[in-house]
Structures are given as C-alpha cells and as structure tokens.
Amino acid sequence: MKKDIHSSRSTIANYLGRALSIAFFAMVVNMAPVGAQDKKPETKKPQQPATQPARPAPPPARPQQPHPEPVRPHPLPQPVKPQPPHPQPVKPQPQPPHTQPVKPPPPAQPQHTAPQVPPRSVQPPQPAPQQPHQQPVPPQPAPGTPRPNTPPPNNQPPHAQAPPRPGNPPAARPNRPTTYNPANPNWRYANLPRRNTVRTYIPPSYHTVHYGEYNYRYHHGIFYRPYNNTYIVVAPPIGIYINTLPIGYRTIYVTERPYYYYNGVYYEQRTDQYEVVSPPVGAIVESLPDGYETIEIDGETYYTVDGAQYKPVVQENGEIWYQVIKAN
User: Fold this and answer.
1) Which parts of the chain have pLDDT scores under 50?
2) Helical residues (DSSP H) of the chain, grouped into ranges
C-alpha cells in the first residue's frame, strides 16, 4: 500500500517537472527580442474542411391507412305529439275617427274656342273614272233602207250603241297588263290596234259618234272610221266628244291645267263630256301609241305621232318618257 502511494507521488512529481520545464521554455521564447525584419512570414497552408461522411437518407415514410371509424346507427325519429293550438287574444283595432267625405271640386267648364282649320291647298278637280253606261238600242230600219246621216240639233254629237254583231272577236284588250320597256316607246299600248290598220270587224259594244262627214265607231279609247265595208284605225279629230274616259287613262298637268291622256289622244272635260284637244306643248307622257314614226335631227331621235312631235326625256327614276315639243 505504501509502495503504491509512493510510486504515484513520484509519477506526479515527474509530470509536474516536465510541465514546469515546458512552461519555462515557452516563457523564454516569448521574451526573446524580435529578430531581423528579413524573416519571411510563414505561410499557412489552407486547411481543408474536414469532410463528414454523408448520412444515409431516411427511408420514405409509409402511408398510413386511415382507420375506419365505426358507423354509429342514427337514432330513429320519435313521433311528435300534436299540441293543441293556444288561442291568441284578439287585439281590438283602433277605429278611424268619423270624418265627413270631401266633395270633389266641380269640373272646370271648357271654354268654347273656334277650332283652327289648317289652310287647304287648292287642287284642280280630278274627274273620277266613269263606267260606260248601256243605252237603249234604237229601232233599226228595214233592210235595204239607207241610214240617215244628218247631224243632230245644237251641233252635239250623238252617242248611240250599234247593234251587236255575233261571232266577232274583240279587237283590243285594254286591261291586259304591260311592263316598262325602254326600247319600245309604245310599251303600254302595244296590245292595242296600230294606227291606219284596216279591220274587217270591230267589237260589238262600240258607240257611234257622228262628227263631220263620218260616223266614227268608238270602243275603249280606239276610234274606227268606216271605209267601204271595213274600218280603219285612226286618230280622233280635234273637237269630237265622248261620254266616258277609257279605262287606264292618265291625268297630266300643263301650266296647272288638267288633261287626260290615253293612247296618244288628249281630252279636256266639258261639263259632263270630254272633248278631244290638240296635244299641249310641254306635256310629258310615259308611252306613245303604236304607229309612231322616228326622225333624227342633229344626231338626236324624235318621234312623230298624229302630227305632233315628241322628244325623249329621262325621269328621276331612270325611265324614258316623251315630251310634246310641237303640236299638230
């Protein structure tokens, strides 16, 4: 026991001696003067960082499956016992105070003022188209006796209807529809008989109009003059009268004066009849009768009908109409 203690003490003494010698040597080194300046500083080598071994990645976490919760049964609804309704007390409603009815004020009496009538523009009267009336057929003379050709009193033309002629087809169809054709000046009256054509028959519903030396036959705006045993389509003479205007006539105004035009013939109203007049200069019509003639003057085309001269004029809608520049 004592030996061990003694050996440990000697060992400790040896360690202390070494430590003191090392400390003394270090103190001497530190106290030594700084030497010549030409000592080069020692270059320290860069220390490489110690690489630590890579740790293995933790294993992926396993997905945890949700634990199904036990389904708890829902409690069954218990039947609700009906409860008797509790009557609510009726609250008395306040009554409005008794007020006297208000009488409405008497209506204001309208003031009698004269109505203002707007001024009316004066327009020339336009005669309404009249339907041809049937006249009684006069007694016919015995066969072989000549028909009298004496003019009636007061120089008024008679208007008698000729006896019907069975088996004769109509000579014209005035109600047949027509269409505008700029290349044909007589497009509206193209279905009517041509001027100066000879007819062996005329419609049975014609009217006989005596004027001058002839008994003209008139039917829907067409005049026929007897020629031997036939008839010639002619223009009516100026001054002859008719009772009704033909169906399809046109009303035109020249210097605010109304005229009635149909198939190249112009009419003016005289009381209850219509007189054939000369074409008024300046009148513009949409179509000419069949049988017109064309003439060229200074490279321009003009049309001549029954002695009157027309020139083509273009309207606002682009159609070509014809204006009277010379009367017959």
Assistant:
1) 34-39, 115, 132-175
2) 2-31
